[in-house]
């Protein structure tokens, strides 16, 4: 998919996150997975093909991205994967009625700093409802000035850095894709920070 609109393109981060899912494929059957900002949905499609129960989501304000999610599912013989309109930072009936989840996926959602707090407030809401869940996310380093550390602290979240070499994603090409290339991609897992005494 070569359209460079946000959700209409397979970004390098999606390939790296899909590689992480593939490396952990034996743990995915039966897991309940939500992909946020899914767009072309490569990570969610990989998770579903590996046996996870997947829900794809993108902004309810971007119907073309929601349609792209549906098209990706059909092309990958996954016609029953639900696609929801969820907008970061907005508590909607769809967000409130989500079934329990184990893993939240997000590839390159930390793209525009004006969205960072909306993303993390949504993640916090989901993790509060699902305290054992984790947010698996990859992001491209675009500016040394961009950081989510203060927002993680504000929203009582913690992150663990996952080295790309630990799952074979530190190469120029992944799964026959040249997309990761020379981009600086990072991966982290975000979860609720436990307060003292818990």
UniProtKB/TrEMBL annotation:
Transmembrane segments: none annotated. It catalyses: L-arginyl-[protein] + 2 S-adenosyl-L-methionine = N(omega),N(omega)-dimethyl-L-arginyl-[protein] + 2 S-adenosyl-L-homocysteine + 2 H(+). Its main location: cytoplasm. The keyword Flavoprotein does not apply. InterPro entries: Methyltransf_16, SAM-dependent_MTases_sf. It is found in: Cytoplasm; Nucleus. One of its GO terms (molecular function) is protein-arginine omega-N asymmetric methyltransferase activity. GO terms for biological process: chromatin organization; methylation; regulation of gene expression. One of its GO terms (cellular component) is cytoplasm. Keywords: Chromatin regulator, Cytoplasm, Developmental protein, Methyltransferase, Nucleus, S-adenosyl-L-methionine, Transferase. SUPFAM superfamilies: S-adenosyl-L-methionine-dependent methyltransferases. Belongs to the methyltransferase superfamily. METTL23 family. Interacts with HSPA5, HSP90B1, TUBULIN, UGGT1 and UGGT2. Interacts with TET3. Interacts with STPG4. Histone methyltransferase that dimethylates histone H3 at 'Arg-17', forming asymmetric dimethylarginine (H3R17me2a), leading to activate transcription via chromatin remodeling. Maternal factor involved in epigenetic chromatin reprogramming of the paternal genome in the zygote: mediates H3R17me2a, promoting histone H3.3 incorporation in the male pronucleus, leading to TET3 recruitment and subsequent DNA demethylation. This is Histone-arginine methyltransferase METTL23. It comes from Pycnonotus jocosus (Red-whiskered bulbul).
């Amino acid at each position: 998919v070569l359209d460079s609109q946000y959700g209409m393109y397979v970004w390098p981060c999606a390939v790296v996150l899909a590689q992480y899912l593939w490396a952990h494929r034996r743990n995915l059957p039966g897991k309940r997975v939500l992909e946020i900002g899914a767009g072309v949905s490569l990570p969610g499609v990989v998770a579903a093909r590996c046996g996870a129960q997947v829900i794809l989501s993108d902004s309810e304000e971007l119907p073309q991205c929601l349609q792209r999610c549906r098209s990706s599912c059909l092309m990958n013989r996954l016609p029953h994967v639900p696609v929801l309109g969820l907008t970061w930072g907005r508590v909607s009936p769809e967000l409130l009625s989500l079934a329990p989840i184990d893993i939240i996926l997000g590839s390159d959602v930390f793209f525009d700093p004006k969205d960072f707090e909306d993303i993390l407030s949504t993640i916090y809401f989901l993790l509060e409802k699902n305290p054992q869940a984790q947010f698996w996310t990859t992001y491209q380093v675009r500016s040394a000035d961009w950081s989510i550390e203060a927002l993680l602290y504000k929203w009582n979240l913690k992150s663990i850095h996952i080295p790309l070499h630990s799952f074979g994603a530190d190469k120029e090409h992944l799964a026959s894709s040249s997309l990761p290339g020379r981009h600086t991609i990072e991966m982290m897992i975000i979860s609720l920070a436990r307060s003292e005494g818990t």
